[in-house]
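Typical record is below.
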Amino acid sequence: SYFILDKPHHAYWNMYNKRGYVALMSDIFQRVIGILEQHGISANVDENTYTLYIKNKDEISSLTFISVVVSFESEFKIQIPDEFLSMDFIDKLPNIIYELKKEDFIQ
């Protein structure tokens, strides 16, 4: 399962170059991969498309999933909206984190 994030089409995109966007996404993905590995979840990322591939997604227990979400929230100082607290979204979490953190990046 995978999710491809298109480049932002918001007004701020013109104010920031691709390098800043790439740097932010690379940082997010490195931290996400580290957290997943701490929880025994094997994953890799295609940095050309910003696609996260979780290798053993079907083996992740609900307790592990919640632990991962709590770790993400702590690491990134965010609160993941309830509508994304589902195993269907675990491979999309880096993109959700980006959406939640982009305002911090801009300011």
Notes: The chain has three helices and two strands. The CA atoms of residues 31 and 75 lie 8 Å apart. The longest helix spans residues 18-38.
